[in-house]
Amino acid sequence: MDIRLEAIRHAYGDTEVLQDISLAIPAGRIVCLVGPSGCGKSTLLRFIGGLERPMEGRVLQIGAPPEGCLNPLTFVFQDFALLPWRTVQGNISLVLEDHGIRGKRARAIIDDVLARTRLSDFASALPKQLSGGMKQRVAIARALAVNPAVMLMDEPLSALDSQTRELLMDDLITLWTRQPFTSVYVTHNLAEAVRLGHRIVVLSRRPGRICEVVEIEKPLAERLYADPDLDEVQRHLWEMMRDEARAAEEELIDV
Amino acid sequence: MSDTTAATERPASDGPAMEVRFRGGGFAPQSRRWVGVAVFVALVALVEWGTRAGWISPLTLPRPSDVFGTFVELWNSGLLFKHLGPSLSRLAVGAALGASAGVLLGVLIGLFSYVRAGLVPLVAAIFPIPKIALLPLFVIWFGIDEGSKYALIAFGTFTPTVVATYGAVDNVDRSLIRMGQSFGLSWLSIVRKIVLPGAMPGILSGLRISLAIAIILLVAAEMLGAEYGIGAYILQAGSLYDLERLFAGVVILSLLGVIVSAAIAQIERRVLGWRT
């Protein structure tokens, strides 16, 4: 299933946040949205996931979601959004219960996604017992449980420390390599974008417009920590964004 | 470079060495289990000593041992349970009615803007009314026997429960609700599995206050047309200026309050174990 954005425009009151965004998200690829803070990239993600409506323009799903897909557009949030009163498996079964999946079938799905995120030993732990990285892995496991057509990741690693971030990036790459998934990945961290993105969409500061779309051909599995090719791309991205980021940062004061 | 070589290479200044003064700590409540009991015992002992030594006249305060004697007498004669039984049933029925109606309405206010706009001012208007003042009205509406007593206690617990509950629903983490929506959960599932458990801490702490108010209102409820009941017992003793019996009754109410509060603490420990 592909996603296409057509001429999206949005404003909050008088402040225009997004302007004329048209974008294609092809199946089986990870598209990274990067941009300075306040450029509307998270808003754009919520449009794609149907949690908010743009003032103008449309978000289109092209083609049917694959067989067995319970929730085609599935979010992974920055703050994990785990229910603190449910255990790890309870949090995953939460999203299955509404589809009438209980008991043995739920058990099988939960065991499978926990194994894929290396959490099998923590099935009955409560979120308060888990580290930040583990919480995000639970959230990823929960997203995988509904077999999504597109994973919408809203700065999923931003609340984590840099070492955990590296580890989780490796996990995401392993997950993708084993079974490629479609994803829109919002981040302000360029290192994440060049490690995980097949296509990197650079947004300008508010009102957000697409500045450039950069394709990275190198397969995910071959992208390594401090890869010189990636550094080149990252430098290029930063050159492009630096002034925008500075302007955006100064802009925040009088908003 | 290790610290020892650094010290030999570059000697520190020769001033007098002084240990850094500790200035952190404090401001962290810790559980000191027996202090509460000790304060209580000390206070009772002081009054006992005062009344025996004579610097507290028996007209101002009854002797604690006499109060205890009255209590034992009450127990032995079987009158204690004759008074306690009706009181507990009034408390249970009234508080259960008031609290459940309050939680229900509080959740509705929390969920629906129209209900909120319509009922929050009404709740604010009836909250400050001293419910005791309405007792005659309740007697006319619900009769002089149990009905009016249930109604008074229920009404008194209802308003604080409503306010606590809708506050608790308002405070449920919105990002969890968005998460529920993003996974396509039904409205009912979101309310049942996200909003209600999320509001539970606030509801339970509201219940603590509501139940204390219910105990206060018990005495008021038994002002009219009650032969038996702790409240009736206290009021009777009060009108006769029988301080021993008055205090015995008051002690029973205090104990009731302590038991209710401990019970809620137990429930919190079991239901809210997930809190950090």
TrEMBL record, chain A:
Entry's Gene Ontology molecular function annotations: ATP binding; ATP hydrolysis activity
Name of protein: ABC transporter ATP-binding protein
Boundaries of every ABC transporter domain copy: 3-230
Signal peptide boundaries: none
A Pfam family recorded for this sequence: ABC_tran
Organism: Rhodosalinus halophilus
UniProt entry keywords in alphabetical sequence: ATP-binding, Nucleotide-binding, Transport
The family this protein is said to belong to: Belongs to the ABC transporter superfamily.
UniProtKB/TrEMBL annotation, chain B:
One Gene Ontology cellular component annotation held by this UniProt entry: plasma membrane
GO aspect biological process, one term: alkanesulfonate transmembrane transport
Domain of life from the UniProt record: Bacteria
UniProt-listed InterPro entries: MetI-like (IPR000515), MetI-like_sf (IPR035906)
Localization of this protein: Cell membrane
PANTHER family with a match to the protein in the record: ALIPHATIC SULFONATES TRANSPORT PERMEASE PROTEIN SSUC-RELATED, ALKANE SULFONATE ABC TRANSPORTER-RELATED, MEMBRANE SUBUNIT
Similarity remark: Belongs to the binding-protein-dependent transport system permease family.
Record protein name field: ABC transporter permease
Species of the source: Rhodosalinus halophilus
